[in-house]
Specification:
By secondary structure, this protein is mainly alpha-helical. The protein has a domain of 72 residues: Arc Repressor Mutant, subunit A, CATH 1.10.10. β1 and β2 form a beta hairpin. α5 packs antiparallel against α11. The longest helix is centred in the middle third of the chain and has 17 residues. The protein starts with a helix and ends with a helix.
């Protein structure tokens, strides 16, 4: 049953593959930002991004091989395909809510990178001020599939994951990594609500999903951000007493709505 649900979610851009870009890179927020600034067209497709990275070297990589690898990692993390709602919505909020970009990037990464995803509960459940060690992340990754990775790969993967959690604002510090609090925004809250919506969650429960947990945000504060996003016309948010409705008419197309009806 779970595998069937996962297969349905891949249509929206979620990924459940064994691998993940974090064995080689972080969530590459800077590269994504530079690419989207260079190819500043919402309708741009994967071929446009590949051309910009490989042919025009918009990210300043030293070799053709590095350029191609960079493109592949960005596709693994974000899809770079406007036909896929996960990326199309990321781009929508990325352009409208610059302050939310770290959380937008980590939300998409969480939805697409299973190795990174496996460390989330450990980091998010750690109290503010707790130390997040690389060794603890190595143990988590190894426990998931014992012996799959060499010691060197475990170390580099844990370092990359630690770096991503630092870039997203969930931990801080250069040498000693300490649990901090991320800074949510109207755009990042809206994106988290959308991710939950695509998995079939509705109403008040949208504010309690694993995606909403990434926001480091109280329920009432998240409601305030959703109301702000609704005033801006990004989403539709309605609340009458305890009854909550969230809709995404700007983001979910007719085909995707049909898929969602099939799921339910």
């Amino acid at each position: 049953m779970k595998e069937t649900n996962n297969n349905k979610l891949t249509r929206f851009g979620f990924s459940f593959a064994r691998g993940g870009a974090h064995t080689a890179r972080t969530m590459m927020q800077e590269e994504l930002g530079a690419l989207l600034s260079y190819v500043d067209r919402p309708e741009a497709g994967k071929a446009d991004y590949l051309h910009a990275i490989d042919e025009e070297n918009c990210l300043g990589k030293r070799s053709g091989k590095t350029r191609i690898l960079t493109y592949r990692h960005l596709v693994d993390l974000y899809s770079l395909d406007p036909a896929i709602v996960l990326y199309r919505a990321l781009l929508f909020f990325w352009q409208r809510d610059p302050a939310g970009q770290p959380l937008l990037a980590v939300l998409c990464t969480f939805a697409r990178d299973s190795i990174f995803r496996s460390t989330a509960s450990f980091v998010l459940d750690s109290p503010e001020g707790a130390t997040i060690t690389r060794e603890a992340l190595e143990e988590l990754i190894d426990a998931r599939e014992p012996g799959r990775f060499s010691k060197a790969t475990l170390k580099s993967t844990a370092q990359n994951i630690n770096s991503t959690w630092t870039k997203s604002g969930h931990i801080e510090g250069r040498v000693r990594k300490i649990r901090a609090r991320a800074v949510p925004t109207a755009g990042s809250v809206s994106y988290a609500l959308l991710l939950g919506y695509l998995t079939g969650v509705r109403g008040e429960s949208l504010f309690k999903t694993e995606y909403a947990k990434l926001l480091d945000c109280s329920f009432e504060r998240a409601i305030e951000f959703a109301e702000e996003a609704s005033r801006k016309g990004w989403i539709v948010f309605k609340r009458v007493g305890k009854v909550i409705e969230v809709l995404f008419p700007n983001l979910v197309n007719t085909q995707e709505m049909e898929w969602l009806r099939e799921q339910s």
